[in-house]
Amino acid sequence: MITDCTVGTFSCPTPRGARPRRIEADFSGGAITSCSGLLLAGLAELPLRLFDRLAACFDDHRHPELVVHDVETLVGQRILGLLAGYEDLNDHDDLRKDPVIGAVLGCLVSKREDCEPLAGKSTLNRLELSASGIDASKARKIVADFDKLDALLVDLLVEDHEREPEEIVLDIDATDFALHGTQEDRFYHGYYREYCYLPVLMFVDRHPVLVRLRTASKDVASGIGQDLCRVIRRIRAHWPATHIIVRTDSGFCRDEIMTFIENEENVDYVIGLARNARLSQVCADAMAQAMASTQETGKASRRFCTFRYRTLKSWSAERRVIAKAEALPGHTDDAPCKANSRFIVTSLDAATHPAQALYESFYCARGDAENRLKEVKCDLFAERSSSNLFDANALRLYLSSFAHVLYNRVRRAIATTPLARANPITVRLKLFRIGARVTMSARRIHVAMSGACPDKTAFAAAWKALAPG
After folding, report:
1. Shortest CA distance to 260 belongs to which of 232, 218, 220, 219?
2. Is residue 84 within 8 Å of residue 429, measured between CB atoms?
3. Cα 265–405–128 angle (5° rounding)?
4. Nearest residue to 88 via CA among 128, 34, 52, 144
């Protein structure tokens, strides 16, 4: 039988007040949850059938008669845990008794008397040890199909739109996941000055459409052309007429990627271009004008110019380049202003996309996509690459990305509240982590949430927007 750890009773004198009383506390409350707001995540998941569809991306080689917790329950429990702020599998040894998580997943009664309704850390660990393309063994009975996970991300994007959009922007960005152990395929990266992985994520607006955990031993743009091709093909299968603009930084400015996009119908790119001596020489006149203006006014000044450019060896064609020649006020008399030039290369036509507007209004807006990456990486714990197996850490990145899909749906539901622009951490603290007492009868589950919750209005707005009918 499963045993519970007895913590004991906590006692202290009343610190303030006219009548001296002792305060006593313990963990004997019974069916009480600290994350009743996950009911909103359950409502957001219902029309998507996300947990069911995620389970279909795994091959379960366990003996059916011995299975207590199916794959749908495991992935659902893991994603709900991430949304609630529980990144460690150890936490689920207690969370497996949580009545709200059980209610959302439909697991209030266990299939066996010696098991809890939800899975503990050991069972969830079997899920995270999934490996793509590796035969099921004694240790790996649940095997993930990463191709199916990739396809599901794009399918969820398409379903999120009522009609085919005229244009979408596909943002690509990379980051680092620091490694502090002896993980598989770990390498030292000179730029980040640490052992790490270098994952690449692709977003359309706020929606992840591809995630790749990659080693730090390769160029960040290596293989991105093939991944980009697969994503565009999947989007094209649903939206044949949509104009796609690929937007990314200079780390992905490679001839292979630009040539592929140029050969695709109705696809364009806007990509950062690293500064060099030739580029600086071309925009020297514009920079001189900006420097003169800054010296005269003491304020930052910008000039833009556009020209055709081709590298000496690496590019196969001449392309349109936009230069931002910016002068910034200096801090000393010897340097009254400082040059700050930036460059982008694009396949968009100058007649429809002027240089300044394309740089300031379009390219700089990719900073918002970096926020999405930080939400998946930090707020939803994708960077927690603590498994020794590379593919297990890759699966964690996928699970955090699907958790981000649910977060987006909840965030949209509170668009008319003060939490409209809240990040996952704020949504977690304000809406998901609400204490409640849960009582169950034959006909209903009553979740009595704390009356001291300061965000009742936002919760009610989200419930109204997400609840069916």
Report:
1. 232
2. no
3. 105
4. 128
Query: At a CB cut-off of 8 Å and minimum separation 6, what does 120 contact?
Result: 92, 93, 96
CA atoms of 201 and 420, how far apart (whole Å) = 24
Long-range CB contacts (< 8 A, 24+ apart) of 338-341? 339/287, 339/291, 341/275, 341/279, 341/280, 341/283, 341/287
Q: Which pairing describes strands 10-13 and 243-248: parallel, antiparallel, or unpaired?
A: unpaired
Distance of CA 235 to the CA centre of its chain: 19
Whole-angstrom Cα distance, residue 114 to residue 106?
A: 19
At 363, phi and psi to the nearest 5? Answer: -65, -45
- pLDDT tens per residue, range 211-261: 999 999 989 999 999 999 999 999 999 999 999 999 999 999 999 999 999
The model's pLDDT over 386-419, given as tens digits with 9 standing for 90+, comes to 999 999 999 999 999 999 999 999 999 999 999 9
The structure tokens 């609840």 sit at 467
Contact indicator for 144, 130 with CB cutoff of 8 Å: yes
Residues 6+ apart with CB under 8 A from 409: 44, 48, 466
Q: If 0-12 CB within 10 Å is exposed, 13-18 middle and 19+ buried, where does residue 163 land?
A: exposed
Q: Contacts by 62-69 with C-beta closer than 8 Å and gap 24+?
A: 62/141, 62/142, 68/110, 68/111, 68/112, 68/115, 68/119, 68/123, 69/107, 69/115, 69/118, 69/119, 69/123
Q: What is the widest separation between alpha-carbon atoms in the chain?
A: 85
Per-residue pLDDT of 325-360, as tens digits, reads: 999 987 766 677 888 999 999 999 999 999 999 999
Is residue 457 packed enough to be buried (19+ CB in 10 Å), middle (13-18) or exposed (0-12)? middle
What is the C-alpha end-to-end distance of the chain, expressed in Å? Answer: 43
**Burial label, 13 (beta-carbon count in 10 A; 0-12, 13-18, 19+):** exposed
